[in-house]
UniProtKB/TrEMBL annotation:
Cleavable signal peptide: none
Any one GO molecular function term: phosphotransferase activity, for other substituted phosphate groups
Similarity comment: Belongs to the CDP-alcohol phosphatidyltransferase class-I family.
Domain of life: Bacteria
One BP annotation, GO: phospholipid biosynthetic process
GO cellular component, one term: membrane
Annotated transmembrane regions: 86-106, 118-137, 226-247, 253-277
The protein's name in its UniProt record: CDP-alcohol phosphatidyltransferase
Keywords: Membrane, Transferase, Transmembrane, Transmembrane helix
Length: 290
């Protein structure tokens, strides 16, 4: 479910950087916290209308994306991984996207795009807002389903509810803002995909034991592999990779129109397919026995 550019390009570079940082006092959280600064610089460069500034913005944001791979790898290498670090990383990712899109919004405020078929229905800001929201939905949903599938296939149980419950139980008076933000995002994911407000005492996963057993049996099936491949090109990192590509090719507006139209249809279809896949696991198991 990993973005191909992460797997084959960013993580290999990240591992090289981690080897260099292992001999320094640099911490994973420090790497995480510098990422929004690069995103803010990229957002500033994107406000200009010439291809050189747009390409420079793309390259600066790409550096942020590489550092986003570095912090997790460094945390594992230095044995410094923690729930707080994960929460800070999640918030830094959201800040990075916010800063980049602030620049994109301002770019089109200063340099309005030409009218098109969409102009009678949506304003420029409407197109940009839809593009941003579908990007958020990509990130939001891919994180949720990644945890669900990885916990089922690796540990034989759906841990989406248990992980959120442990995060909530760990909150206390001294908990950081990042921890509270991480829990809020988790609650929103549960509300969106389990259709209930999360209750630490009563909430349970909608993926039953029979479904889990069938999904484990189907782990290497063509359908499961297709689901994984679809998420690899549909997650939040893949969306940002496409945004960077549109900047490099000076096709920023065309990309935003695509995200606001075809991108919305695409991610809704991927989520619907996953819902069908999970709900149908019990039925497929019964058919296999019959």
């Amino acid at each position: 479910m990993e973005d191909p550019l992460n797997r084959y390009y960013r993580y290999p570079i990240a591992r090289w950087i981690v080897r260099a940082l292992m001999r320094t006092p640099v911490t994973p959280n420090q790497v995480t916290l510098v990422q929004p600064l690069f995103a803010a610089l990229a957002g500033y460069l994107v406000t200009f209308d010439d291809p050189r500034h747009l390409a420079a913005g793309a390259l600066v944001f790409e550096l942020r994306s590489i550092l986003d791979c570095v912090d997790g790898a460094l945390a594992r290498a230095k044995r410094m991984a923690s729930p707080a670090g994960h929460a800070i990383d999640a918030l830094a990712d959201w800040l990075g996207v916010t800063f980049l899109y602030a620049g994109i919004f301002w770019h089109f405020h200063l340099h309005p795009p030409p009218d098109g078929p969409w102009s009678a229905v949506l304003s420029t800001n409407g197109i940009l807002l839809l593009a941003l929201l579908q990007g958020a939905l990509r990130s939001f949903s891919s994180d949720y389903f990644k945890l669900k599938y990885c916990s089922i296939f690796e540990r034989g149980t759906d841990e989406t509810v248990d992980v959120l419950r442990r995060k909530i139980q760990a909150l206390g008076p001294s908990s950081s803002f990042f921890a509270h933000a991480d829990v809020f995002i988790g609650r929103m994911g549960h509300l969106a995909f389990e259709h209930e407000w999360f209750d630490p005492e009563r909430s349970r996963s909608s993926t039953g034991a029979d479904q889990v057993k069938q999904l484990i049996r189907e782990e290497t099936s063509p359908l499961t592999r297709l689901i994984g491949a679809l998420w690899a090109i549909s997650n939040g990192d893949a969306f940002l990779s496409l945004v960077v590509l549109t900047l490099l090719t000076d096709q920023l507006w065309l990309g935003q129109v695509f995200f606001a139209t075809g991108g919305v249809v695409w991610i809704v279809a991927v989520i619907a397919l996953n819902g069908w896949f999970l709900r149908g696991a019990s039925r497929r198991g019964k058919l296999a026995v019959a």
